[in-house]
Design a protein that fits this description.
Blueprint: H1 2-11, H2 26-41, E1 44-59, E2 64-79, E3 85-87, E4 94-103, E5 106-114
Antiparallel strand pairs: 1-2, 2-3, 2-4, 4-5
Length: about 120
C-alpha cells in the first residue's frame, strides 16, 4: 500500500489513492486534500517511504481487520517544477490503528486512528 500511495504523490494522481483507501473514507479524503494542495503548488513528492517497525493484529476477521502498527517516515523529497529538491526529515515512530476491509480480495484502509 505504501508503494501505491507513494506513486500517487509522485505522479500527483489522486485516482491512485483508490487502490490504498476505501473511497470516501476519512484517510482517503485527507490524502486527496493533501495531494490537491501539492498539485496546486505543482510539487511532486518522490521517494516517499514508511518503515514499519511493528505490526500486531488486534482484531482479525475475514473482511475487516484492525492492525496496530508502529511506523515512521523514512524518506521523501518535495520536487518543484524548477527541479528544486527538499528532503523531508525522518520521522519519529508513531503508533496507529489501521482498519482494513476487503472486497474481491483487495484490501484497503478504511480508518486510521491513534493507538
Amino acid at each position: 500500500m505504501d508503494a501505491k500511495r507513494s506513486r500517487a504523490f509522485a505522479t500527483l494522481d489522486p485516482a491512485q489513492l483508490d487502490a490504498v483507501y476505501v473511497r470516501g473514507s476519512a484517510p482517503w479524503s485527507a490524502d486527496r486534500a493533501l495531494l490537491a494542495s501539492y498539485r496546486q503548488q505543482q510539487i511532486r513528492i518522490e521517494s516517499l517511504r514508511q518503515q514499519i517497525k511493528a505490526v500486531t493484529v488486534e482484531t482479525p476477521g475475514r473482511t475487516t481487520v484492525v492492525l496496530r502498527i508502529v511506523d515512521r517516515l523514512v524518506s521523501g523529497v518535495a520536487v518543484t517544477p524548477s527541479g528544486h529538491r527538499t528532503k523531508f526529515p525522518p520521522g519519529q515512530p508513531t503508533a496507529r490503528r489501521l482498519t482494513l476491509t476487503t472486497t474481491a480480495g483487495n484490501w484497503r484502509i478504511t480508518a486510521i486512528t491513534k493507538a
